[in-house]
Structures are given as C-alpha cells and as structure tokens.
Amino acid sequence: MNESVLVIGGGPAGLRAAADLADLGTSVVLVERRNELGGAPIRWKYKTLAPELRPTEEVMDPMIAAVESHPLVKVYRDSVVERVSRAAGNFHITLRTNGAGAREIPVRAIVAATGFEHFDASRDPRYEYGRAANVIGIHELEGMLKESRVVCKDGRKPKRIAFIFCVGSRDRATNPWCCTVCCGVSIKQGIELKRLLGDVEIYNIYIDIRTFGLWEQLYWTSMEEYGLNFIRGRVSQIYDTGTQLLVKGEDTLVRGPFEVLMDMVVLAVGIAPGEGTAQAAKVLDLNCNSFGFLQPRHPNVHYDSGKEGVFLAGACVAPMSIEEAILAGSAAAMQAAKFVREPALQGAAD
Ligand SMILES: Cc1cc2nc3c(=O)[nH]c(=O)nc-3n(C[C@H](O)[C@H](O)[C@H](O)COP(=O)(O)OP(=O)(O)OC[C@H]3O[C@@H](n4cnc5c(N)ncnc54)[C@H](O)[C@@H]3O)c2cc1C
Ligand code: SF4
Predict the structure, then answer these.
(1) N or C: which end of the chain has fewer CB within 10 A?
(2) Does 348 have pLDDT greater than 70?
(3) Are 336 and 328 in contact (CB under 8 A)?
C-alpha cells in the first residue's frame, strides 16, 4: 500500500503538517501554487508577529528549512493539483507545474491547507481603497514596516495615522464573520509605527476590541507604554483632500459624529477564503460553508473533512492565528499518519 501523503498549501499549516508527517516516517508531496513557501507571513513580508512582536523568521524559517531539507518531502512550487481520482485505496493526483507540464502521483491521503486571501477593500466604496493614494491595507503596511520605511505616496513622513478595524469583517454587506487576528495585528503595527517614526499619532477606530487570550496584553501595552488612541465608532466615508484624508464617522461612545484629518489610513482588512481554497475544494470535491471556507464534518473538529483520507488544516477552515494554524497542521498530520498506517496498526492490534 502506498503510504505517501499529499499536502496542498505551503503556509504555516501545510508546512507543519508536511514536517510532522515526514518526521513520523511518511513520505510527503507538498504542493504550493506560488513560487515560494511560507504562506501569508512570507508573501506579505510580516516583520514581527503578534502577540509578542518577535521576528517572523523565528517561526517561519525553521519550518521552511525542515521541509526543504527533509529527504521524505518532495516540494512542488508553482504547482496545482488539477485532477484527483480514487482507486484501490489510493488517490491518483494529476499535478500541473508551470513550465513543466503535468505528472501523475499516487498518494494514500491528502491534507488541504490552502489558507486565505485578504478581503479586497475596493469592494467597499466608503474607504476609497485603490483610489486615495494613502489608504492602504494592513498587509501592505507589513511590507513597509519590514523595510523600515513608512512614508506617504509623496515621500512625506506621516504624522497622523488612523487604523480602521473590521474592514470586510463583521459587516453583513460584505463578510459577517470576525477575522479574529486583525485587532491584535493592527495594535501590533501601531506599536511598531511608534517605535519606527517616534512623533506619530495613532488612532484606532474600532467596533469592539477582540484581542483574545494572551493577545490582550498588546492592547494594554499599546495604551500605557505607547499612547495609542482608541475611538469606538464606525466610519461612514473617507475623503481625499489632495494633501490629507478626511475621515468622517460616528463615535458610538459619545454618540455623535466625528471628523478627523489623517496623513495615512490603514484598513484592517479581514481574512477571506481565497480562490486557492475554492480550486482545491472543487478538485477534491469538498464541502464549503456559505462563506466559502472548507466545511469540516463537525464544526468543532476542524481536521475531519468528512471524506475518507482527506484532512483539513489552517485558515482554509476558519480565520485563525499562526499559532492556531500550526496546531491545526500538526493535528491533521497526526490523523493522516494514522490513516496511512491503518492496515499496519490493525495488524499490530490483532
Ligand atoms: C496582515 C496580517 C497579519 C497577520 N499577522 C499575524 C501575526 O502577527 N500573528 C499571528 O499569529 N497571525 C497573524 N496573521 C494570521 C496568519 O497570517 C494566518 O494565521 C496564517 O497565515 C494561516 O496559515 P495557513 O497555512 O492556514 O494559510 P496561508 O498562510 O494563507 O498559507 C496557505 C498557502 O496555500 C497556498 N495555496 C492556496 N491555494 C492553493 C492551491 N489550490 N494549491 C496549492 N497551493 C495553494 C497559498 O499560496 C499559501 O502559500 C496575520 C494575518 C494578516 C491578514
Ligand atoms: S479581529 Fe477585530 S478587526 Fe478583525 S474582524 Fe474581529 S473585531 Fe474586527
């Protein structure tokens, strides 16, 4: 019986799944549709990670190195699974690699770890994203922080920066779910901006602050040590004045309108299921929920796809943090390892 496992997606969840399976002696085919491993933290150049602002490399580099150097892991970059069929207990995979054509690979189990995409803020006209030059997303700010160069489009150093929380999240006109990490990530970025720019004022415009568990410390530190400002409210419209951004909205604590002038506005764009997840769902014939996330058999048991031999991991199932994605990858690896060894395990028990 073939005992290899296909892992689709080379982000935190897929990398962890691949490394754990290989460490357990299972051969792994890791398929990543982009040309680099690491998923969102590498693609968007996260400088540090919430909740402790530790360098992203501390978490991602060892996981990437582990799969790249492991003799039991074969990595295919720039590749997608085009077709899957099942016969005699094996999946037969047709893999297409850019510039190298198609190849057939038999595997015994599959882990889908296809992650997420950011909400496209240009879908919500209130924020002028894509039109006003100094309205950017938190994913774009990550790259600027990484280069230690945060400037307005005309090269000016911003003096006043507003973060708008829940863009494309908790909003029935776009996406109703909470992305779970963007409060913490925005606050983390506010602290990094204070450290980098010094005399900058940061305003966080929020509905509720959701910094779960140990991430809550970020919230306290941001106010007590860094003087970040918090406005509970909703933004109705951003106007580009040509030199600044006029942010209009309602303060829901004092129950009145507000208008503030900013040099830069950062949108805390949410986590949405991407087309990579839709592509994998189609090829693997997996269920998606009404939002487009992969739907496990039971909402509290994420790794179980409900389909024999197919396991789920990471943000393709629901919005989550890196620590949760890594745990999910490990959990799916354990289930896949048990599955590929089932005949042997049963033999040992007889
Ligand atoms: C701006 C921002 C900052 C964040 N900062 C933090 C932080 O500081 N701390 C924290 O804990 N969390 C943070 N997060 C959350 C973190 O990014 C996610 O938890 C994590 O990336 C999820 O890992 P994943 O492997 O499930 O998905 P991803 O990172 O999205 O990786 C999925 C991978 O699968 C690939 N893929 C997709 N579809 C296919 C397909 N069909 N075939 C082949 N490959 C495919 C993708 O190219 C990608 O490489 C942040 C999120 C955002 C939006
Ligand atoms: S984590 Fe915060 S910013 Fe993100 S959707 Fe939830 S409440 Fe809004």
Answers:
(1) C
(2) no
(3) no
